[in-house]
Amino acid sequence: MKSLKVLVLFLFLVVLSGCNNPFRSSSDVITESAGYGGAQYDMAMMQEAAPSNSYGGGAKMMADSVGTLSAASPYSPETDKKLIKNGSLGLHVESVRDSAVQIQTYAGTVGATVSDLNITRGTNSYSGYLTLRVPAEKFDEATAALKAMALYIESEYSSTNDVTESYMNLEQRLKGKQAEETRYLDILAKAENIPDVLSATQYLSNVQSEIEQIERQIQSYDNQVNYSTLSVSLYEDETVTTTSAAWSPKSTFHSAVSDWVVFLHGSVDFVIYLALFGWPIVLVLAVVWIFLRRRNSQKKKGSK
User: Fold this and answer.
1) pLDDT tens digits along 5-27
2) Whole-model pTM above 0.85?
């Protein structure tokens, strides 16, 4: 009897382990499933097998492409450096106007352009400001050449910004977005109903907008890397010679004549205004003067 109980208990454990086998594969579970669960799995398999018939496949492909981009860093030591160079100079020169012309002429010889030029006349001298866009490989040469044009250098500043990693990240993002664009174009071409067409069109528009934004960022980096900005401030050294040269008797004579004409104009204008607006006062004064005169005359006659 005891042996029979042990045997029954053994068989029960075998059956129980067969019903709750933790080592069965997920494919076995899906194969044995029935009803809505199995149908849901079949639908997911169909979407993965034929993404062009459902926009959900496009979303999955976008996620796959993002995962691929994050798998490895685009930066490597062998990559060409992307450096942005900028600088500024403060120069004292003999003549600001002559130096400005000289700098513009020199800029043409090295492929640079003057993007901003401003010259201001002061009391005894001129001052000027120029902004040059210089090819990056000519930046050091141009800086040395402009310094050689000065009587002496008041200030000098330069900076270098390494944007290599940011640039490469943008390029990788662009490749990923372009791959997404190609996939969405394929999805749109194979879409069979209006909802799929509208959804694919919306996602495609978003991706293309992101592509344009990344391309603008890359172009901005290219412009800054290829052409350095060099700001130049020019000042004239104020001396006795320049102060004396600023005086001109002819100019003084013309200035005096101009002031005399202004004085005459003002005097004539005063007389005209007085004639137009002063007559009431003159009339009142005349009446008062006549009244006082008659009064005095009567007093004289009375005293006689």
Assistant:
1) 444 444 444 444 444 443 343 33
2) no
Task: Please give the torsion angle defined by the CA atoms of residues 96, 102, 107 and 109, in that order, rounded to the nearest 10 degrees.
Answer: -170
pLDDT for 257: 76
Distance CA 152, CA 144 (A): 13
> What does the pLDDT look like over 74-83, one tens digit per residue?
445 445 889 9
- The ranges assigned to domains in the chain are 84-246
Nearest Cα neighbor of 180 from 47, 68, 65 is 65
Give the whole-angstrom CA distance, residue 51 versus residue 190. Answer: 9
Q: How far apart are CA 93 and CA 130, in angstroms?
A: 14
Identity (one letter) of the amino acid at 12? Answer: F
% of the chain at pLDDT higher than 90: 47
What does the pLDDT look like over 107-116, one tens digit per residue?
A: 999 999 998 8
What's the rounded Cα separation, in Å, for the pair 147 and 207?
49
8 A C-beta contact, residue 115 and residue 131: yes
* Residue 179, CA distances (Å) to 131, 182, 185, 203 in order: 41, 5, 10, 13
Give yes or no for residue 173 having a pLDDT over 90.
Answer: yes
Residue type, 257: V
Find the range with the poorest average confidence among 24-38, 136-150, 261-275: 24-38
